Amino acid sequence: MPVYLKDDTTGHIRVSLNRIKRVARILLKLRGHQDSELSILFLDDPAMHQLNKTYRQKDKPTNVLAFPMLDADIVESQPLLGDVVISLETTAREAQEKNITIHHRVTELLIHGLLHLLGYDHERSPREAKIMESEEQKLSKLLSYEQRRNQMIKLAINIDHVATLRQARGINEPDPITAAGICELAGAAGIVVHLREDRRHIQDRDVLLLRQTVKTKLNLEMGATEEIIKIALALKPDMITLVPEKRKELTTEGGLNVAGQLTNLKKVVKRMSAANIPVSMFIDPNSEQIEASKEAGATFVEIHTGRYSDAANEEEEEKEFDLIATAAEEAFEAGLRVNAGHGLNYLNTSRVAALGTIEELSIGHAVMARAIFVGLDQAVREMLALIK
Ligand code: PXP
């Protein structure tokens, strides 16, 4: 699937050529042209102006021009599609006007140019313009779907146990704030803390400091109680994960029964949305809870991997793994973003990480347990190596 990309600009507008090549390959595949050859050329406005004048008699630069290799009616069997020429200067201006990234705008123009190469033409008639526009929308949707699936999985580290150790002595170390920094430097993409009603580990002071210091993403795990909701709304973490919380449990035991408290959870999601805080529902891997999470307006679900991790034998582990795989697929297809976690360790995580539908894993205990022996930095790096 050769995509040739040439940058003939002066280089003052920078784009990632590799990223654009990747996008072009996915687009070709989505259109069933994985074996075709496509050339992309980036120019500045003066060169684009010249081309536009020569080939379209238009005395000004434009954003994109498409030059099909051969006649449109034989293109379906033809491996050489042609050239898409894009002016990066015009693209950058348009991106700014539309308040989108330059890569986003290049992608839109690439889709437009590619469809021209495949025989679509909005200039032929209003009807054809409509058809082309609808194809553009379809292709753009399929592209983001493809990009979301199989994206690189991320690791978020739950640092509650650092606070547990501190609280055991009632003094001020080890400090979870330092732990968060070490995890981030080791490559964690996020920090997770659970501010429990009984404050058994993470304290109010911790979440306030973490909000100021976490550079990646702060995910606040919480029960849906009024006291903690108010704290979250004031704190504005990057996201919250709603979990069931029982005072006597050692750790979060089961998934949240979203279906059973839909009315209440809808209200919580609404309040969080008003503060721009995405909500994740920590749920057992089953359809009813996925549907309810969707209906509640959640952005994410976090699939509970506890039963898989605690499986007593191989057969049980297989069964639980299948449930996780199916639930992750179902949630992904429903348009939810999918995380997973609980009980994952250095032996059972890679399979879950390889599913392709899961965006992020939330891991605490196993990493902290290993950190005692090898140090936190190494423990995080070893887990990262396993999931990538
Ligand atoms: N996800 C959620 C929602 C949790 O409650 C926990 C435990 O605090 C985890 C992930 C991490 O679980 P573990 O500490 O077993 O890795």
Structural description of this entry:
The chain has about 400 residues and is of the alpha/beta class. The protein has 2 domains: about 5-150, Metalloproteases ("zincins"), catalytic domain (Collagenase (Catalytic Domain), 3-Layer(aba) Sandwich); about 155-385, Aldolase class I (TIM Barrel, Alpha-Beta Barrel). About 50% of the residues lie in helices and about 15% in strands. Strands 5-6-7-8-9-10-11-12 form an 8-stranded parallel beta barrel, surrounded by 8 helices. Helix 1 runs parallel beside helix 4, helix 1 packs across helix 5 and helix 4 (about 100-115) crosses helix 5 (about 125-150). The mean pLDDT is about 95. Bound molecules: pyridoxine-5'-phosphate (PXP). Pyridoxine-5'-phosphate binds near residues 158, 251, 252, 362 and 363. Pyridoxine-5'-phosphate (PXP) binds near residues 160 and 252.
Reconstruct the topology from this structure.
Elements: E1 3-7, H1 17-30, E2 37-43, H2 45-56, E3 64-68, E4 80-87, H3 88-98, H4 102-117, H5 126-148, E5 154-158, H6 160-169, H7 176-186, E6 190-194, H8 204-213, E7 218-222, H9 226-235, E8 239-242, H10 262-274, E9 279-283, H11 287-296, E10 300-304, H12 306-309, H13 314-333, E11 337-341, H14 349-353, E12 360-363, H15 365-374, H16 376-387
Parallel strand pairs: 1-2, 2-4, 5-6, 5-12, 6-7, 7-8, 8-9, 9-10, 10-11, 11-12
Antiparallel strand pairs: 3-4
Helix pairs in contact: 1-4, 1-5, 3-4, 4-5, 7-8, 7-16, 10-11, 15-16
The structure holds pyridoxine-5'-phosphate.
